[in-house]
Design a protein that fits this description.
Layout: E1 4-13, E2 16-26, E3 31-35, H1 42-53, E4 57-60, H2 72-77, H3 86-94, H4 98-110, H5 126-140, E5 144-148, H6 156-169, E6 173-176, H7 180-186, E7 189-194, E8 197-203, H8 209-212
Parallel strand pairs: 3-6, 3-7, 4-5, 5-6
Antiparallel strand pairs: 1-2, 7-8
Length: about 220
């Protein structure tokens, strides 16, 4: 993928500026963590970034964006709707094709929900819904992964499994995280957001938790 150049991004709510102006570059092969306290502007920045790269990005939004009435299979399959004809997509809605099942089942196995393939999303736990949204993004196979708190509902060991899988599946990613340890372990660049501005931007190898904690 080509580098992403963001220049003078701003966001306002109710007539009050809450983010920016922010400028930053995202280079191919970077795994970037957005860190900072609640309300700092991480989700807003991620949303602005998605607006810039929507045609080549897979998104895991904090609210997940799942269709509650449909099974896990169909929610994951939606990651590739744009890759197929409307006829083929309708066919999969009524009768999932074997090749799509074979592609999605291993993802669910890796994410620890292999038995939920045909389960309606509405009946899943919060952590299972989160993993369904992640499976959809992994199935999409886009150029860049954008994820907003993708492991917030997962326990420690499972959070590590999912972070490792996302890092392995996408060469370039930007992930908003509250967990400093996960950010330092799975990302090679940390961008800290505070009061709507970039307060920290450095390579992970040069940082320790004590460098990041003041952002919270």
């Amino acid at each position: 993928m080509d580098a992403v150049h963001l220049r003078n991004l701003t966001a306002a709510y109710g007539g009050q500026q809450v983010l920016g102006p922010i400028s930053l570059d995202i280079r191919p092969g970077e795994h970037i963590a957005l860190v900072g306290g609640s309300g700092a502007g991480k989700s807003t920045l991620l949303g602005l970034l998605y607006d810039q790269v929507r045609d080549r990005a897979a998104l895991v939004p904090q609210e997940q964006g799942l269709v509650q009435s449909l099974p896990v299979f169909h929610n994951v399959y939606m990651g590739r709707l744009a890759a197929h004809s409307r006829w083929y997509n309708l066919l999969n809605l009524v009768w999932p094709r074997r090749r799509e099942l074979r592609a999605i089942e291993p993802l669910l196995e890796k994410l620890g929900i292999p038995d939920k393939l045909r389960t309606p999303v509405a009946t899943l736990s919060g952590g299972q819904k989160q993993r369904t949204a992640i499976a959809r993004a992994l199935f999409q196979e886009a150029e860049i992964l954008l994820a907003d708190e993708p492991v917030s509902a997962l326990d420690g060991p499972l959070a590590h499994v999912v972070m490792g899988l996302m890092t392995e599946s996408y060469a370039t990613s930007v992930v908003a995280l509250h967990d400093i340890d996960l950010a330092l372990r799975y990302c090679d660049r940390i961008i800290g957001i505070q009061n709507g501005q970039i307060a920290l931007d450095d390579m992970t190898r040069r940082l320790t938790p004590s460098d990041i904690l003041p952002l919270y």
